[in-house]
Amino acid sequence: MNVNYNPASIFAQDVDFTFWFILWISLFFLVFITGFIIFSIIKYNRKNNPVPSNVHGNTGLEIVWTIIPTILVMLFFYFGLQGFLKMRDVPENAMEIKVDAGMWWWKFTYPNGLEQNTAQGLTVPADTPIYLPLHSDDVVHSFYVPAFRVKMDVVPKAAGAEDNYTWFEATQIGDFDLFCAEYCGLNHAQMITKVHVLTKPDFQAWLDEQSAEQLKQKAENPGQALITSKGCFACHSSDGTKLIGPSFKGLFGKTEMVVTNGEDREITVDEAYLKTAIMEPGKDIVKGYQPLMPPLPMTADEVQAIIEHIKELSE
């Protein structure tokens, strides 16, 4: 192992120790057992042992090969359990950042209400415990930061489970991959982003700047702010690019062929259609697209704000 090893989180060293411990024990027994088999093949082949003889049991040997594996398995369990308990014991002073997952986006909500999405990533201060309540809007996802040795399923309440959680404390400044480690559908691979770890002063400056910018955007263009925070741009573009769903650019007033209850029909995209598409996304599916959009909990004012922004992109 690298003598200059510098773990990226407080969990990394414990997890890596358990991994390397199991690996070296396994390699030792692989070499030992393979060597013993080769030795036995040579020693007891027909040339060296022309007259076969019966081999009787050896009580002492049987006790040894029962006790040693038992001790090793208990050690594996002990180290794994200690790491697991540490990962489930959230410090009281941890900063809470809510994590929402959906097909195929992440949303991060900070203590002051700032919302960031997949494109922006998760930004945290170094040397600070971060508590992450995990919520899914649709299917099972998995919050995974390899460098931190953090991986936890994000289970929807529809599956009968309570919201899950995890936490970490980053020890290095830098950017680290964050992605979904549970296959969640067609664009599962798009759920990759970064965890940006900053110094505490830099994080506070970033948080203040981003919060002010988001407040300004909400005041000037609430529809765009909602589309960004809800993760709509994971499936819909604003520049005409075809993604999983239709582009917002030029959408309002456009004639589309939709599939309703298995039958094709032609519609004009107006406010009524957009309200239905947002609140009941599986009702009228634009032909050529899959019914993948989950229903998003929004107020009537929020829906109207999004519609107004789509109108602006169609002018």
Question: If you had to describe this structure to a student in words, what would you say it looks like?
Answer:
It is a single chain. The chain is α+β, with helices and mostly antiparallel strands and 315 residues long. The chain is 36% helix and 22% strand. The protein is built from six helices and 14 strands. Strands 1, 2, 3, 4, 6 and 9 form a six-stranded mixed sheet that branches. A five-stranded mixed sheet has the order 5-11-10-7-8. A three-stranded antiparallel sheet has the order 13-12-14, covered by helices on one side. It is elongated. The N and C termini lie far apart (60 Å).
> How large is the radius of gyration?
28 Å
Principal-axes geometry comes out as elongated
Largest sheet: 6 strands, mixed
Number of strands: 14
Q: Into which percent range does the helicity of residues fall?
A: 25-40%
- Give the helices and strands as they follow along the chain: HHEEEEEEEEEEEHHEEHEH
Annotation field: number of helices: 6
Distance between the termini: 60 Å
Uncertain residue ranges = none
Broad structural category = alpha+beta
The fraction of residues in strands falls at 15-25%
Estimate the mean pLDDT confidence: 87
